[in-house]
Amino acid sequence: MMKFVYLICAILAVGAFPDERPRVFCGRALAEARILYCFGPEIAVGVKRNFYGDARTVHTRKRTPTWPWLARRIHKRAPGLVDECCLKPCYVNQLLSYC
After folding, report:
1. What is the pTM of this model?
2. Which of 38, 51, 91, 93 fits as disulfide partner to 99, beta carbons 3.0 to 4.6 Å?
3. May I ask which residue range the UniProt record assigns to the signal sequence (predicted)?
């Protein structure tokens, strides 16, 4: 009985400290990793890509701001998911913060 308790404790200890190393996710791998970690494997399997939907959104977006003070804000951007997980390695916890 005592061996069984030690075995369960050992399994729980190994599971509590996973061997997590920082990884680099870029492009499609970054998008798929975000979907997988944020929404689960059921959603990640059924992801469809629509080229035409993406193309329409690019053409309907305005390129110049309508107000003069908005121009300064457009060029400044905060560090995001690509900065944290593509330009340098990141942990899964950092990726999960963007869910």
Report:
1. 0.50
2. 38
3. 1-16
